[in-house]
Amino acid sequence: MIDRQRTPHMDRHGQRIRIGAVTYLNSKPLIEGLSALCPFADLVLDYPSRLADDLARGRLDVALIPSVEAFSDPDYEVVSDACVSTRGEVFSVKLYCRVHPGEIKTLALDEGSRTSAALTKVMLEERFGVTPKLQSLPLGQSTASCTADAVLLIGDRAMLPPQEDFHTVWDLGDEWVRWTGLPFVFAMWVARKDCALQSVPTQLSAARDAGLLHVEEISKRGSEQLHLPYDMVYRYLTRNLHFKLGPAERAGLRLFQELAASHGLAGATPLSFRGEAEEPVRPLLVTADATSLA
Ligand SMILES: C=C(O[C@@H]1C=C(C(=O)O)C=C[C@H]1O)C(=O)O
Q1: Is 85's C-beta closer than 6 angstroms to any atom of ligand 1?
Q2: What is the pLDDT of residues 230-255, one digit of tens each?
Q3: 136-146 burial string, b = 16+ CB within 10 Å, else e?
Q4: CATH code, residues 4-87+183-293
């Protein structure tokens, strides 16, 4: 029989903690060594949209979910300062346009995405007054499999060379940062407020720190698996992506939430961070500028 007094890492009445992480290369530095740091947990890898659905349905206790999904439930809480974000070109989130962005009438959205899907809709409406008809691009399919005016791709397949000549290719990280002057956070570790995770939040940050120490090995493996040059993968993991949720990233998140909420794509309840008192929130829509990145 399990003595619960002696198994402090067990939760849900003695069961193992279920952690869900993104299956793409972008998350490898966050989970390198995580299983060893959390022997009391089970780690599941999946696409971001599925992780969000599994956390919502209670099939996971904590998951690396699309940031827009963290705004969807006031009962959610960000539990770690580890995240997937960018301060410029992200390289793996691209909008492939067959026409000028202002002329897009049909938009195919990567089935694995929630955040970049919302960001694309926000940017097209805010910047061009465009509200395209939407369709889903199933996970296994390529841009060539659909005839939409624009196709959003995220993750590993978005890094591969495009198969046709497009009118315009947006790197969504680059577009956001040049538009707002703030970083963009794609994914964060989220759990329900009442879910006791024991040492998992601390271990998530520790795993990120350890992962970044092994970024050469991770890049070598990634380059072999995706058949991409090592230098490209190394640059992706060390320059394009940032893995720490700092004050500038939080400001970017708040602005994204305000914009997404104003387009009916997100809830407006301010995010909660585990272990922190809730702060009064200042609207950012009029204050975002490049100095916020400092
Ligand atoms: C940078 C990326 O961030 C991802 C984008 C997400 C989204 O669009 O919902 C969710 C999780 C992240 O893995 C990427 O997938 O390339």
Answers
A1: no
A2: 999 999 999 999 999 999 999 999 99
A3: ebeeebebeee
A4: 3.40.190.10
